[in-house]
Structures are given as C-alpha cells and as structure tokens.
Amino acid sequence: MTTKSFGEPILRKEDPRLVSGQGRYLDDLGHEALAAAFLRSPHASARILDIDVTDALDVPGLIGIYTYEDLEGRVAEPLPLLIPHPALLNGRTGYPLANEFVRHVGEAIVMVIAEDRYIAEDVVELIKVSYDVLQPVVGIQNAKAAHNAVHPSVPNNVSAHSVKEVGDARAMIKAAPHKLSLDLFIERSACSPLEGKGVYAIWEEDSQELRLWSSTQTSTGVRAAVAAKLDLPLQKVECIAPDVGGGFGVKIMHPWPEEVLIPWAARKLNRPVKWSEDRREHFISSAHERAQEHHIEVGFDEEGRILGLDVTFFHDNGAYTPYGIIIPLITSTQLLGPYKPASYRVEFTSLFTNTVLVIPYRGAGRPQGVFAMERTVDAIAKYLRLDRTVVRERNFIQPDEMPYDLGLIFQDGRPLEYDSGNFPASMAMLKEMVGWDNFETMRSEYAAQGRKIGIGVACYVEGTGVGPYEGGFVQVETSGRINVATGLTSQGQGHQTVFAQIVADELGVPIEDVFVTTGDTRRFPYAVGTFASRAAVMSGNAIALAARQVRDKALRLAGEALECDPHDLEIVDGIVRVKGDHTKSIALKTVAVLSNPLRYAFDESAKAATQFAVGDTSKPPVPEDQEPGLEGKDYYSPMASTFANGMHAVIIEILPDTAEVKILRYVVVHDCGRVINPMIVEGQIHGGVAQGVAGALFERMAYDESGQLQNASFMDFLMPYATEIPTVEAGHLETPSPLNPLGIKGAGEAGVIPGSAVFASAIEDAEGFEIRRMPISPSELWELRRTMKENA
Amino acid sequence: MKPSRFQYVRPASIPEAVVALQRQNSKVLAGGQSLTPLLSMRLAAPEVLVDINGLSELAGIELRGSELWIGAIARHQEVLTHPLVGTHVPLIQQALTYVAHPVIRNRGTSVGSIAHADPAGELTAVAALLGARIHVVGPHGVRDILANDFFVGPLESSLTHGELVTGVSFPVLDSSWGSSCVEVARRHGDYALAGVCALVQIVEGRLTAASIAIFSVAGTPVVIDVLDVCTENEKLNLKVQSLIDPDTDIHATADYRRQLVKTLVAQALTEARSNAESRTS
C-alpha cells in the first residue's frame, strides 16, 4: 500500500538543494550580464531642474545613462494601477524613471548601465541632479492637515474614501447601556525579505524574443506587464521566477520600475542586463505597510456583547497607489475577526504621503484591524471587570451559525462569508494550553519574587485562498517520473513538497517520483501569483483536479491493456493493478508509453508503443475525444475565499528598571482546515510569529519630518534575531473548508496577524495602563510609565 | 552597495605594511567587520587597503611580563575562548559575550575594534577602564599610547596618518580583582543602548579600588573612579549622571539611557564584587 502522504510531516523536498548551496537566486544568474544601478532621489518631494551627466561620460566601462527623456513608447507612460476600485477616486502611479517630480526619497531618476555594478555605481556618483526642493508630507497627521500636497492634482492628499454600514451602528451605540471610545495607532514596517528584488533579461534579436527572470511573486503578472509595456506579443515573452529568497508581499507588486527598465535596456542594447536590488534600495524604493490610525466608538451591554461598532481609520498609502487600496479594504472587513457585533460601521480614508509606496506585507491590513478590534474587546472587559476571554466568547460567531454572512464585500469583490470555523473550541484549546485560568496564581508567584508578568490574548480570522484561479498540470513520463507544474511562484513555502504530497496521494505514486515546477511561464502560462495565503488552496486544488484526470486516463488505458473494467483497478506505488488480484498489473510508466502511440522506437520502453506492437486496428491510434500522453491539466476557481482562524496567547515578563519585555511563553491555536503537511504549517506559523514579534516590539520605519528614512539598514531597522524569538507552542484544530475539494485553508500569513494585539494585551495586563500604539520599545514603555505616574 | 575603486595591498612584513600605509588615504584591513560595510555604502572610500591578515607576528595572545598582549589579527572568537584571557583579564571575555554573533566574531578582531574607537564598543570600554597600552608602529618607529589618550572622539583615535596598531596590552589582574560587563541592547549582539564595565579590588575583605567605564553614552568611554561612592547608591548615581551625556535617538530617549546607566552601574559593581570574591576563594 502506498503510504498516504497528505497530513504527514514529510521532509521538504527542496531543502537538500537549498541548504547545500545549490539554490539559484536571481543574483546567481547572468554573471556576464551588464549591470544596472540607479540614481535615486535624496529628497522626499522635489522638482527636478537639471540632470548633468558631463562628468560621468568618460568612465571606462559605461554603456548608457538613461533618464525619463530617453524612455520610449509605453515605457514612458505611468506604471499601471493594478487593482482599481470605485472608492479609489484619486489613484496615482509613478513612472519607471521620475518625470519632472520626485515624491519620495529613493524614487529612481537615472538608470546607468555599465560593464559591472561597481562601474555603474561609480557613474551614479558622478551625475549631478539639481532640484527645487518642496515641502514634503510625512505621516498621517501631516497628510490630513494637507498644508502641502503630494500630488498637486489630488485635493487634501486623499486617494480613497469609503464608508460601509451593516445596520445602524451609530444609533445602536447611542442607545447602548455602555460606550467607550479608543484611538489606536500602528506604525510603518516592511516585508524585508532576505533577498531583495532583482531582474535579469536576455533579448534574442534573431527570434525577437525576451526571456526574463525576476525575483517575483508573480511571473505571469510580470510577463503580461512587460509584454504590454514593451509592445511585444505575449508569446514572445517568457518570465521565470528562480529560487526566491522571500517575498512576504513586496514582490507581488508588478511591474516594478526595474522590471520594465531592465528588459527595455536589454532589448535596446541587445545585451543581457541584470539588476539586483541592494538593501538600502530595498528600504527606500520598494514598499512598506502597516501605518494606520483608528478611532473606535463601541456600544455594549452588561454582558459585554457589542451592540454597535463604529470604526474610522486613516491609512498611509505612501507616494503612489499601484496596488490600489487592498490594505484598508482588508482592515475594514477583517477587523471583525470571529465576532458578530449587532451593527457595524467602518469609514476609511487613504492618504498620500511623500514616503515609500505601500503594498501588502504578510497579514496585509489584518494586523492593524485585529489590533483595533482586540484592544476594543480588552477595553470592554476592563470596563465591565470581566475576564477578557469571556467577553470574546460572548461575541463569537457560533459553529452552528456557519456559513456566516457578515454583510460586507471582501477584497476579492465577493460577499464576506465565513465558510467554517469553531471559535469556542479554539478558545477552549488556547486557554487550556496557556493555563489561562491558573494565571493569577502564576502572577502571584512572580510578584512574590518582585517580578512583574502579564498575559495577553488575541483572535483573528483570515480570508485565504483568494481567487480568481490557479491551474495545475500533471504529466507521467515513460520513465515513471511525474512532472507537476503550476504557474504561481515559490518563495520558500515548500510548494515542491506539498504539491508533490497531493499528487502522490491522488495518483498512487511514491513522492520521490514527483517533481514540481512553479513560477515558470514556459511550463504553465496561466496563473495569478503567490499572496494572500492562497497557494495551497488554489494550486493545491487545481493540481489535485489535474492528477484526478491523469488517474482516470491511466485507469482507462490500463483497463484496455489488462482487459478489465477500470473501476476494478487501483494505483499503488506507481503500479496499476486489479483490486484483490495483484498478479494482473501494469506499471504506470508503461501506461504512459501506451498513451502515446509512436512511429519511432527511440528506446526500449518506446518499442511497446510503436505501430506494429500495439493498437486496435479498427480505431484510430488516438481516439477522437482523446489526446496523446498521460497528462492532465485543470483549474480551480472558487466561488469565494475560505476563512482560516487562530488565537494567540503570550505570557511576558517586564523588567522593573529597564522596561524590557521578556517572552516567557507564546501559544498559538490555529485552524487552517485540513493540513497537508503539519511541519510546513508549523514552520509558517513560526515564521509568522517571528514577524509578529518583530512588528510588536522591534521593527518600525523611522522617517524624520523631511521624509528621510533614518534607519534604512539592518543595523537600525531592528529585525529581530533568532535570540529574540520565543519558542512557539502550537496547537492545531482542523475544521475542513466545505468550499474546495481538499478541504484546506491558507496558512501563510496567520502567524503574524495578532502580533501587535497580543503583546499590547499582555503589556497592558502587566503594567495596568492602556497601550494604544504599537510597536513599543523599552524606552517608550519606560517613558509611558513615567507619564502615567506623573498623571496619577 | 559596491565599494569605490581601491588598491589592495597585502604586505609580507610590518615594515612593508608601514610603507604601504604612507600612501594618501590608506586604511588597514584586519577583520573587516566594521570597514567592509562602510566601504560598500561608500561612507569610506580609501585609495589603498592594506590587508594585515598575512602578518603572522600580529597573531596570537601572549603573557608578556605583567601584561596580556593581544595581537592585531587575533579574532574575537580566539580571545573569547583563550585560557590566558580568562585567567588574567576575565573582563575581556565578559565583554566579548556581548559582541555580535559567532560568524562576525570568527572574522572580527578585538584589537581592530579598539583601533576603530567606536564609543559603543565593549572592548573600547574595557581598554579604557583597564588603562590598556595600544602598541603602534609608524614611519617614525614604534610607540605606545595609553587607552585614555587613544580615544579622542566617536570613531576617532590619536593615531596619526600611516600608523598601524600592532597589538594591545592589558594589565594582568591578580585574584584580588573582580570585574563585570553588563549592557542593554535591543537585540543580542547589537551595539548597546548603554553598557557598563566595572572593576573592583578587594584586599582582606576591604574594597580598595572601584572604577567603571560607561559606553554608548558619550563620544568616548566614560571612566569614573567610584571607590568613594560605591556603597551609597544615591551618591553613586549622582556622580555618574553628572559625567555622562547620552543622546536621544530613534532607539531610546536620553532619559531612558540615564535610567539604564543607573541600573547597569549598580548591577555591574555588584557582579564585579562577587566576581572578585569568587576569584579569591
């Protein structure tokens, strides 16, 4: 019997290659290519008066210097606005190279192509740009005040405004027995993948074809965008995502200016050209996320049930909106988490600032929304002197209410309807694991030693598996090798393992025989991309459906060969055999030979398929409704997203003199439906929690008032080390999704979402005063203590 | 993030190194852990890089009379694990546990970080507190500079153009001495928000010497004799606070750094005393 691999902690197939240095990332490619470097704006807002390249022209090894004036055709047009939305009234995008104005520090102004990167950077240093420096808009307060405009044509710096109502929340709050209002802030952070962006392009002059590699989360998206910009037939452009060293959202944006410019230069120069982003470039010219200000009004009854919730928030979208307003849309919908307030109103305003543009970073608007909601629930509990988990439980959507329609439209344009989930069970499991009910004993024991501890809790629901679709291709070679392809890309998730697990089970073959390719438009040209915790749900199901086609065909062909009913056959360990009579069998690889009638015998196994060896001479070699080859292709396109959920608890100790926060325990209960590989899911949770801890206690983008990013390096942007990350205790609950054939939900972003919420809850519990702004550093916490003491 | 063009010289002897360093705008490359990022970000653009890693006479750790000599290319990791250091100047190892991470300690040199004169450097503070001698060779021969004269300002030493630090000698501390290094950093291995090295001597149960060096709170390490005040916390703190001048930056306010210093000074002195007691017994 083939060992079932779905649900097993199978070791990752990609790891032996990656951990032994065999990975091939963007910068490992094209060593002979010309190199690009960019002159980037040193000012947050300025008009470019002059670009003087005189001193730069004599540098040996210089190939070309390009400014906006040099761009041609559609390359000179604004970059696309990828996701339009009716509420996005004033969407704005930049140009590949700045056209007269720069709107954030780091915006590209000049591209230099040279024999190598050293020379290109030498040239950049010699180019003199003169500017008329303008007053920048930095931060939400400044953007609201609108004394200066990021885009002169956009009034009040407002890109988008939206109001959504379910019931009459304001009236309900007014009539409620108890009310509270809160102001809550989250600061900017960023994805910070280990590998920055990168593009490498080869133009084939003879065939007029472009091949490009990009460190991207969507090779199909880049391909389509580049073909459009360079006015090339799609057929003449191929895009490959090589090994990608992390994405976390920033690489779903496309086309980045460099993704247009590098292929354009490669074609123009008829030479391979490459650009690898360096760390400083990544900080100042890629993307950030998270900055939001929320004002909450909430009305509730004696039991803590929320009668009305009115949320008004401001979102800092940076200088441009190429990815639309996905983040505030997600905040506004996913803020509700597992709760069912009797009425809900949400209003958001998205604001331009002269800072790096904003696109989704793992969690994508949910960390902010969950922070806002969970602080509110904690505040209700404190006000009513109720246990924080009790107030949560009283507001939970119950399992028998599933599927539950929240009356809103989700980020995919479809109704926000939770498909499944058991929130009370999750909470019970979390409380048991973390010892919630015994915590006061623990607190007293620590207090007796002069130590101060606190416990926090936070819940979230995450819409995963966002459409529109993904596809899968499965092919059995005559050697027995199974090729699997899907168009979305991999950035370290373990797709080569989990997709192989699915195929191994569906097809009845050893997992060692299954080889998965992702993110290569030559192998699978139709795809969306890897984001929104969607790869397992979308491509996993598509690949399962494709494998089922292959299985059906294999059984039919084997039935013909074995002269029996396909329904009596099974596939085990790569052998098709009669159930109950294992003497009648045929190897799957032989079925693959038979599936492809041949004229020429190129090897021993092929002989079996040649025209004098097989075939019913009464029929054509390939029946009319069939195709040659043992392969299948299918797509999965869901009606709606599937909703995963989880609950985190943390126990912290805060040092009395230095206000340093030490994490004693971090507990996660997680429900992502049926689990394909628990080890990979746990890895996703661990990585997510690490980024959650980072966002709560360490990472922030520190802009000064002139729009300079003061910490654009890993020395001052405090991405935590392994030494700062706690051991994560994880419990799994499996509530299958009824929406897809495999019953799975996404898990990629889950771990990060409640980070700021759960730490704020714990710090507030330990200190006794309100925590309304995250992240928080020891210095800030110590200053807050001092302020509280002075005010007391 | 690629360095500007520079000439790379790998001398075969100290005199050759000194000659190479006479060139305009030259820099010494030892472990490279501070220099290489500065080069890559083009914050430093030397014309000549003189790589001293091949000079075997600069390697090693030796007891020389009443001093412990550490050569200019001894790696942090070697210093951290060397028994002579643990026996004779344990403060160096106490401080090194806070310095970066294993991969950086495998390359970075302890003497290099002193020569770099970083005000946030743990070893800078150790050298200042112990009154280490910095051995220098230059076009006019060899000379020794006392640590207090060596550290002039942030990343600024009294080395003159073309001089090479060949090693640093630390006074050996007999078992009457105890020491400690404590700091608070946002991440393990980072530069400290504030840190304190403490040194005490206990003779026949009586405290006969007590001094501290505070780092990350001024342009150079702040060395303070605290024997007169170290049993009275209030006075101790008043004295210490009057001599430091911390900054507010994106990581911490000046007042928070002062609070850290208050806490760390008390902690370092307590630990140093118990270290002295454990070394005596």
From TrEMBL, chain A:
Domain Aldehyde oxidase/xanthine dehydrogenase a/b hammerhead: 20-135
SUPFAM superfamilies named among the record's database cross-references: CO dehydrogenase molybdoprotein N-domain-like, Molybdenum cofactor-binding domain
Keywords: Molybdenum, Oxidoreductase
Signal peptide feature range: none
Any matching Pfam family: MoCoBD_1
InterPro entries in the cross-refs: Ald_Oxase/Xan_DH_a/b, Ald_Oxase/Xan_DH_a/b_sf, Ald_Oxase/xanthine_DH-like, AldOxase/xan_DH_MoCoBD1, AldOxase/xan_DH_MoCoBD2, AldOxase/xan_DH_Mopterin-bd_sf
GO MF annotations, alphabetized: iron ion binding; oxidoreductase activity
Coiled-coil intervals, chain numbering: none
Protein name, per record: Unannotated protein
Automatic annotation (TrEMBL), chain B:
Entry GO MF terms: FAD binding; oxidoreductase activity
Domain FAD-binding PCMH-type: 1-175
Signal peptide: none
Entry keyword annotation includes Nuclease: no
SUPFAM superfamilies (UniProt xref): CO dehydrogenase flavoprotein C-terminal domain-like, FAD-binding/transporter-associated domain-like
Cited Pfam families: CO_deh_flav_C, FAD_binding_5
Keywords: FAD, Flavoprotein, Oxidoreductase
Keyword hit for Flavoprotein: yes
Coiled coil: none
PANTHER family: XANTHINE DEHYDROGENASE SUBUNIT C-RELATED
Protein name: Unannotated protein
